[in-house]
Amino acid sequence: MVARWPVHPRPAPLESLSSWVSRLAALYGMRVEELLDDRNLDLDGAAVPYDLDFDPPETLLVALAERTGHDLGRLWAMTLIGWSPWLFDWPFHPQVDQQQPMFDTYVRANSVLLAPGEAGDSVVAARKRWYGPWRGANWGGRVCPVCAPERGTALVWRLPLLVGCGEHGCYLEHHGKVGLARMAGEPITPRPVPEPLATMERHTHATLTTGRVELPGRSVHAGVWFRLLRSLLDEVSLALTTRHAQARATLETVWAATGLPERGGINGWRPYEHLEREVQESLLLAAATALQLAADDTITACGRLASAIQPARDQYVYDGDRPGWPDDAWREAVSRTEAAMITARTDRAVAWQLLAYLTVGCRTLARFEEQRGYLFGAGIPAGYLPSAGELGRTDLL
């Protein structure tokens, strides 16, 4: 029997494994290395990795699940490997010949603003190795001033995916700044993330917590949203001068709305993961602006995923065929019938013909008398209206 640890707090939503283990160790007054050594965990010879959030050995996660009572799947979701294939594509360390196909599949095959193929065929590893989408640029060391330190650090805060806390809508701050302020007893005023970036951050947070997000065009799965966002970041980073007229006009409109230099100030194209953090933040704002402009119908997206980010267009619906005979014929028939009713009030012969016409389809005597009563109620004298026998309708039941 494996003894369960007496104290094991529940992981916070989206918390990383390293953050949760650090909180566990702090409760016992231990360092993480001490908590995870052979005296506390039987790892069957498996080494504890330096980066717990990347791809920890399954033996470690199983041991933690047994000693804390938490579900193994929940612990997997606290690691980067646990978000494959939703957020990441496998493998994490693509070989040289795998980098370009992975980039083309994840990024360029999911066009958003631009028409399919309009982004071109850039060589992703022209300068240095590309480790895959959202990998390479480490935004670690950021915490939410509202969440910290009780709720730990979210896994995605170390990725160039969010600039703020999706739950509280404020910018993430460096953990050193927050820690020093708390030690000095000085409050930190959260800085709200402005629109339209805040809306895009809420989309990403909803995707991370529910697995889906409601966009102006339709609801999409998490795997679609992350690829849509990554493709959009690539499109706004492209050189405007090499695009076709419509694509160039679209990108010009987006960057003009941001108030920032086009392409975030970069000169030569590089994948998003290889850019400096300031440029990445500019591209995130441009992507959020593009989403807003598409939703407002200010720009028209032409990519394969365009229908997700803009409201559905009004579609022509066939009005249907007109009646086989014109309205004038109906009005003429009504007028003639009314004229016949007026004449029948003073002309016995017309009254007989009108009754014979109205009762030609009657199959019962009761139905015949209903029609006869209708004409009588319309002002035709009863003496002008013959009986069924007088009309020769001996077939009535």
UniProtKB/TrEMBL annotation:
Pfam family, one: TniQ
Family annotation (InterPro entries): TniQ (IPR009492)
Domain TniQ per the UniProt entry, residue ranges: 6-172
Highest taxon listed in the record's lineage: Bacteria
Name the UniProt record assigns to this protein: TniQ protein
Species this chain originates from: Kutzneria buriramensis
